[in-house]
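## Example record

The block below lists the input lines for one assembly entry, exactly as stored, with component labels intact.
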Amino acid sequence: MGLGAAVALMLAPWKATAQGRPGGAPIDEHELKAAFVYNLTRFASWPPEAFAAPDAPIVACVLGHDPIAAALSATLAGRTAHGRRFEVRRLPANSRGDGCHFAYVADESSARLAEVASRFRSRPVLTIGDGPGLPEAGGIAGLERAGNRLRLAINPAAARSSGLGLSSRLLGLARLVGGEPPAGRP
Amino acid sequence: MIRRRLALAGTVASCLALITAAVLFAAYDRQVAREEMAEGLSALAEILAANSTAAVSFGDTDAARELLGSLRLKPDLRGAAILTTGNAVLAQWGNLDNPGHGVAAPGFKFAAGHLRAVHPITVQGERIGSLIVEADTRELDQRLGWLTRTLAIGLVWCAGTTYLLANKLHGRIVAPVLDLAALARQVTGQRNFGLRARGGAGDEVGVLVRAFNEMLEEIEARDRRLNEQNHALEAEIAERRRAEADLSRLAGQLALSNRELQDFAYVASHDLQEPLRKVQAFGDRLAARWGTTLGPDGVDYLERMRSAARRMQALIADLLAFSRVTTRGQAFTSVDLAVVVKEVLQDLEVRCDEARAALHVGPLPTLDGDPMQMRQLVQNLVGNALKFVRPDVKPRIEIGAEPAEIGGRAAARVWFRDNGVGFDPRHADRIFAIFQRLHTRQQFEGTGVGLAICRRIVERHGGSIRADGRVGEGATFEVVLPLRQPTTGA
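Predicted C-alpha cells for the full assembly:
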C-alpha cells in the first residue's frame, strides 16, 4: 500500500473537500498532517481554565515557517472539536505561545526540540512535532513516518504533567514514548 | 369400541395440546435465542465501534486489524469489517460477503445462515465509519432442529403413553358402562326384567347403574301388573263369551217360543172367530125372532151377550192385527210419511170435524218401511190423540219431525203431541204392553192393543218409541225410525 493509497483511506471523511479541489489533485503530505492534527484534537481534552470563555476557540499555533500552516487553516476552517471552533496562528519559532492550545513544531534539530519542549512544559499546550524526536525530548506528540505511512508517537507522562487528557484509544494507536525529560533542565 | 374411541380422543387431544405447546415453545425459544444473539452481537458491534474510533480517525489499518483480530476468540462469529464513510473497507477479518451492503442502516438483520450487526463509528457525534459483525446462525438452526427432534420424540412417546394409559384408565371407566350395555342387550333379548346391574361406585357410572336398576325394577313391577291384568282380562273375556253364548242360546229359544206364541195367537184368534161368529149369528137371530117373547129380562141378557160377543170380536181382531205385524209383514219400500199422514187424516176427517180438532202437520221425511204398517202406526197414534180428549178443551194435535241418529245411522224423530187427558209419566212404559189400559171401558172404549201394535211396528223397523205425558195436560209420542233399512239399502 503506497502513501497515496494510505492518504486516500485516511482522508475519506474529507473526500468531498478533496473532490472539490481544482483538478482533483492528490492530497499532499501537509494536508494529511493537518488532518492528523485535527483528529488529534478530537481525542485530546484541555482543562477548562485553558479557555477564557465557554465558546472560546481552540487556538492552533504553528511555530516557525512551516508550509503546514496553510493546510491547517484550510482543514480546520468551519470545523469544531469539543464544540469549539478553531483559530490558526502563525508564531515565530521562539515564541512562548501564550494562549495556544496546541503548538505545531516544525522539523527541528534534536537540540532545539528539547528547548521547545521545556518552553511549553507544564502548560496545557499540546505540542506536536513534525517528525520524530519531540516526545522523546519531553514534548507530547510527534508525527512519524513508519515505512510509507504516518504514525503518532506520544509521551503520556508529558501529557499528564501538562494537564492534558488523551484518549486511551488514541494511546492504543500511538507509539508510546516513556520517560521524563532529562533532569536538571527545567 | 367406546373404550378405544375414548382413548383415541384423549390421545388426539393430548397430542394437539402437546404439539401446540411444542410449536409455541420452539417459536418462543427461537425468538429468545435470536433476540439474545442479536443483542449480544449489537453490543459487541457497539464496543468494537467505540474502540475503533481512533483507528478509523487516523486510518490506522493495523490497529483496526488488531482490533478485529481479537474476535477470533469468539468461534460463532463469521467475520467483521471496519468501513470508512465511503464504505471502503479499512480492515476486515474472517469470511464476510459483500461487507459494504446495508451499511447505511445501523441495526441487525438476519439473513440466510448469519446475523449481521452494523454499528456506526462516531467521533463527537460525527459519523466517520461503520462497523460490521456477522455471526453464524447455523447454531441457532441446529438448535431449532435439535429442539424439533427432541419435541417430536417426546410427542411420540407422550402419544403412545397417553394412548396406553387412556386405554387402561378408560377401560376402568368404561367397563361398567359396557357391562350395562351387555345387560341391556340381555334384558331386551330374553325379556328378563329380573336381571340387575352390578358395580358402579359413587361416581356418575354408579348413578347410571342405580338408575338402570331402578328402571328395571319399575319395568318388572309393571310387567307383573300387566300380566296379572292380562290374566284377569282373559278370564273376564272367557266369562263374557260364556255369557254371550248363553244369551244367544236363550235368545234363540226365546225367538222360537215367540214365534210359536205368535203362530199360536194367530191360529187361536183366527180359529176363535168361527165359534164367535156363530154365537153372534144365533144371538142376532134370537133377538130378531124371539125378541118379543123373551120378556124384558131375557132381552137384557141377550143384549149383554151380544155386546160381549162384539167386544170379543174386537179383541180377536186386534189380536190378529197384533200378531200380523210380524207374521204378515210386507217388504220395506220407500214411504213418504207426509203422504201417509195426509191419507190417515183424510180417513179420520169425520172424527176430526166432530171433535173440531186443530191439526198442525210439519214437514215429514221419506223413509224405508212397510207402507201398511206405517199407515197403521200413524193411524193408531192420531186415533189415540182424537180419542183421549178432554171434554172441555178443543183438541189440538201437532205432528212434526227432526233429524236424529240410531247407533250412528241417520234417522228421523217423529212426534205426535196432543193436549188431551195425558197420563201419569210413571206409566210411560206400561202403556205399550198389550191389553194394558189406563182407563176404564166406561171412560174410553178400546182393547189396549193399539200402542202395543205401534211398538211392535216400530221395533220391526229397527226404531224405538217412547211416551211422555202429564195428567190433564196432554201426551207426546216420539217415534225414532231409521231412514234406510238394511234390506232395501242397495
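The beta strands of chain A are 44-45, 58-63, 86-91, 102-105, 126-130, 141-146, 149-154, 165-166, 175-176. Chain A touches chain B through 21 residues (CB under 8 Å).
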